[in-house]
Amino acid sequence: MRQIDYNNSAFTLRFEFPLEWDLDSLTGVNIDITNLDGESLLDATAATLYTATTTNAAGAVGDSTVTLANDASAPSPGDRLRISASAGGPSEEIEVESYNSSTKVATLRRELRFAHTTGTAVKGLFCTYNLDTSTVATWTKALQVVLRWSPGGSDDLPVKERGEVSASYFAFPDFSQRFEVRYPREHRIALPRLKSVLEEAKLEVEHDLSTPEFHIHRVADSEKVRLLVLKKARLIVLEGTGDKWESERTAAIDEYNRIREIILNQPVWQDENQDDVKDDEEMLVGNSFWGKERGL
To answer: What pLDDT score does 213 carry?
Structure first.
């Protein structure tokens, strides 16, 4: 569930375009937000697209950089862009590792798979919207909402997602250091995509502990969950390794389930109303809350 910052006059919502959308025809994206009763909180409003540009030099298969036009807007690390099809080769998605605003050269996370001619169109694969939640009587803590992203210029359908107004959320600020200390080999493998590994691990842990009542972002004593996220991150990395790592994967699954069972048998405080006070009804007790049926 998307977390929306409470009492923020310009909270940036970012939406990555789905593969199913016709990006060649896309002319814009609107966002609207309703509560769970269908009442409008934000009428359909245009989100901000990355300004379309072109390549300023030809690209060859295996190149690790792309040069953009002199008037191109600066992409940020992690931004996904799409180079259109040209006489040089088919369209291709790229991810920016870094960007030199003086030379207009984008260093890529992965080398080019296809060739591209000079002057080929480049579009962003994301949009953003700065949401004002400073009217706290409307955007209350723990408010549940539905966001809808609607494409313009194509027949593609809108995408909906759930959101929640939050004063805090589950985070793992020292994840890289702790992951390296515990699993240095897996850390080296994951380093180029460590943020993505962490996000996937958090999503899977939330799913593995999932009930209608459990909410990873409301767990106050979150250190219990962080250890499980470390174990899940290792599993995600090991899933991409060969047969010779089969014994490591088996041991990692056993260790993940062992830590998970410990958590399932402990009381957990979820601060549902986000008031930083441990109310009696917020103290959720182990197996009476989660159940013992789940496992890998």
So the answer is: 59
